[in-house]
Write a structure and sequence with these properties.
With 137 residues, the protein is an alpha+beta fold. It starts with a helix and ends in a 36-residue tail after the last strand.
Length: 137
């Protein structure tokens, strides 16, 4: 039985987005591990090992705490590289880039989707039913 063309296109777009999500998550996420009682992503091991919490967090003089400032991740991670690494190849899928989205452009704070010390769900999962099989929370 032939399905209407728009359903076929929607399925193709969904499959392409899933493949892109798998690629993006394998590039962008690291496994959580324990750094002497503090959970953190293994790709930031050199910061944890050196006690460089202030690379991301404010230091109040007594303790390092709280969420990082918006944009602090972009001091080390380049937005253009993130957008390029997660850009779908098909022209009709270009608006599904999680780092340059249809809804938010490039303005979503990184911590909305990425968690350094905790597991997180991607922001788009709040409204969309995308399957992110390789998302590392």
């Amino acid at each position: 039985m032939n399905q209407p063309n728009f359903l076929s296109h929607a399925r193709t777009v969904s499959l392409a987005f899933l493949a892109l999500s798998a690629l993006a998550s394998s590039l962008a996420y690291g496994q959580l591990r324990d750094f002497d009682g503090m959970m953190g992503r293994d790709y930031h091991a050199r910061l944890h090992d050196r006690g460089r919490c202030t690379a991301c967090h404010e230091d109040s003089g007594e303790a390092v705490a709280g969420y990082p400032k918006d944009g602090i991740c972009l001091d080390c991670h380049r937005m253009e590289k993130l957008v390029s690494a997660t850009m779908p190849e098909a022209e009709e899928d270009k608006l599904q880039n999680p780092h340059d989205s249809l809804h938010y452009g490039r303005e979503v704070p990184c911590i909305e989707c990425h968690g350094e010390h905790t597991r997180k769900e991607p922001l788009c999962a709040d409204c969309h039913n995308f399957d992110f099989p390789d998302h590392q929370e």
